[in-house]
Every structure is written in C-alpha cells, then in structure tokens.
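User: Hey, my collaborator sent me this sequence without any context and asked if I could get a structure. I don't really work with proteins. Can you help?
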Amino acid sequence: MEREIYLDNSATTRMTDAALEKYISVSRDFYGNPSSLHTLGAKAEKQLETARSRILSTLGARGDTLVFTSCGSEANNLAIFGRAFSKERFRGGRIITSAGEHASVSEPVKRLGQSGFSAVSISTFGGKLDLRELDEALTKDTFLVTIMTVNNETGAIYDIKSASALIRKKCPDALIHTDATQAYMKIPLSLKDLGVDLMTVSSHKIGGPKGAGALIISAGTIKSRGLSPLIYGGGQESSLRSGTQDVAAMCAFGEAANDHALHFRENTEKMSRLRSMLIDRLLCDPALSEISATIPPSPAPHIVNITLPGIKSETMLHFLSSKNIYVSSGSACSSNSHGHSASPALIAFGRTPAEADCSLRISFSQENTEEDVTLLCEALAEGLSSLARISGGRRR
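Assistant: No problem. I've predicted the 3D structure and written it out in structure-token form, which is a compact way to encode the shape of the chain:
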C-alpha cells in the first residue's frame, strides 16, 4: 500500500496507541453506568474522575470544574447559550466575539443577535486581535466575551491575556470564554495565565477519539451560578450536562492529554520545524514561487495556510488526494454547510474572496516528517504546472 501523508490534523488526528488501548480496556472492563450506585458503577465513575483530573492538570486548573461534552462544538454552545440564559438580566445584553471564529461560536452568537441580544465582532486583520476595537465595544451590559485562542484556519495566536485584562478592567462581571480547541497541546495554556473563565478543548484534535470534548469552568463561575445547562435530565456533569457519559471516550481523551503533556516540548518543536521548513520551501523554491503563505505575527506551530495562483482549493485538494496527500480547503465543520462561501477567517485576515477560494490549510502533528513536507512540495509543484487555472471566473 502506498504511503499516506496526512496533513489535515487540525480537522482531526489519528488516535494514539495509548488512547486506543485505553478506549478498548475501559469499554471492556468498566462498562457500568458511572451514575449507578453499585460496584461496577463506582468503578466506572473512578475511571471517569481520573480522566477529568488528568485533563484539568494539563491546564493548571486546580479547583476548577471540567464538564465533559460530546465535542468542542457542544462545549462552545454550552459556554455561549449557557451564559446568555443563566440570568434574566442578560436578555438583550451584549456578547462580543472576534471575526473568523469557528462556526460553533459564530453561529450561536449570530442566533443570539437574531433573538434580541447585541452581538459585536472584533477585527482580526492580519491575524491580530484589535484591542482598541475591543476596548470601544465593551459596554456595561456586556455579559460574555468569546474569542478563540488560535485561529483554526490561519494559525494566528490571539492575545487573549491582554484582552482579558482589558475586559476585567471595564466589565468585571462579564465572563470570558476562549475556544482553545486548536491551542490545546500546541501552545502553553492555562485558564489562570490567560485570565479566562471558560475554555473549550477537544479530544480528537490531540489523538483522542471523536465524541468527547470538554468545557473548563472557573471556580468563580460555578460559585456565582454563571452558567445554565443546555441539556436537562439526570444532573450528570455537575448538573450542567445531563446524559450518561461515554466513559471509554472520555478516559481515552484523558490518556491522550496525559501523553501529549509528557511530550509537549518535543512535539511542538517538531511541528514548528516542519512549519518553518514548508514556508522556507515556498519562499526559496522557484517551482513554488507563485504560492503565497498567510503568515500571522504570532503563529501556532502546526498550521500553514497557503494561497494558490488561480487554482481552486478543491481542485488542488483532489489532486493531492490522488497522490495520498491529505490537506484541507478550510474548516472541516464549515465544509458541510449549505451554500459554499469564502472562509470568514481568511477574509477577516485580509484575503480577498477569490484568494480565499484558492487557499489550502496544511496542519501538522508530531507524527509528520520532513519527508512529508518534501513530498507535499513536489506534489504542489506538479499541480501548479498541470492543473487548469481560472481567470475572472473562467478556466484558461
């Protein structure tokens, strides 16, 4: 079988061997309902709490609460809708987000805007959060600010720490949420250092299984009852997310988190080297000179977004796929939406709609190699010379 080169790790990752083994063993040996009072239930609950503690420890979140969800999107929805409907006085109030957020943030915010709330989006031109604009947007009725830590398409790291300090000064009662799905195990991360109240992380972005995510909630938010559940029922997950937990998936999530924490430095340094190697090739190889990279001022180590010269991203994506090289033409979640439109993240960065429609995202994991980068560049060069290009919407 021809070797596969997987460079779409921001969409999802292969399960690590440790996570897969944990998933199988927990499914086989700890199948009791963790809410049951008998011994099998207690054993399952102990496994679940160990996983919870493992993930919290990787974020330095001692004393905070982790609510397991089915995915990062659900955790984002819980943070946004859970905050908006937690207090009657928030109705009609202001929620602030940033341009180019993942759809699981932008769509809930849009929905609140359509329901009588005030929704404001802060510019991220050039991959930098506009703190001056944020300062002007903060009003006394602001109850939630939700800004991602790392943009999932451009790899831009936003200055959440400075944003949090500004928000605390002007709106001390507002909660601060960050979608850290693309930041978790890619950059140093903790609630305390960032100054946030709520943080979203996801299992399948770090070598865990799909079907598990988490919302980390500060002790102060729990104490003030600043969040209401979206799913009501038996009161699992601190009464914030009812429903029987998938213990095996959540324990495998904990295993993947622990494994990444042990190898964090070597993993991130390797991804950063591969990213630099790719960008250097784009700059120095004459066969790739027509490709431009979208480079933010503070980049995450694992994402490179490139723009092709008049070749639709999906055209190149399928060409690369035919060679067993797998990349992305944008957010995997957004690709399922009806009615294709240019990437909001790339438009917010400063790309034109035409450029955004010719852009690819390459995203690394610790499993990738320098040979992967070399073969990708060779395939891109071949694609540039052989694929039909467009001009003014017509092929030439």
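In plain terms: Residues 264-284 form the longest helix (21 residues). You can pass these tokens on to your collaborator as they are.
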